[in-house]
Amino acid sequence: MLSTILAELSLQPIAGLGAALGAALAAIAAGIGIGKIGSSAMEAIARQ
Asked: What is the pLDDT of residue 17?
């Protein structure tokens, strides 16, 4: 019975939501990484 219910449900919106969350997480992580690179460069320049 559960398999019939699951077969009737369209899982496309759930997959789209997962893809959107994954893309958002990747963008946030990239922003944090670039920020750390910038802060390290500023510290290195200040030490010179």
From this structure: 82
Unique residue bearing structure tokens 């893309």: 23
Q: Collapsing DSSP states into helix, strand and coil, what is residue 20?
A: helix
Dist CA 46 CA 36 (whole Å): 15
Residues 29 and 35: their CA atoms lie apart, in Å, by 10
Q: CA-based Rg of the chain, rounded to a whole angstrom?
A: 21
Question: 27-46 pLDDT, tens per residue?
Answer: 999 999 999 999 999 999 99
Q: How many structural domains is the chain composed of?
A: 1
Rounded distance between C-alpha atoms, residue 34 and residue 28, angstroms:
10
Q: Is residue 30 part of a domain?
A: yes
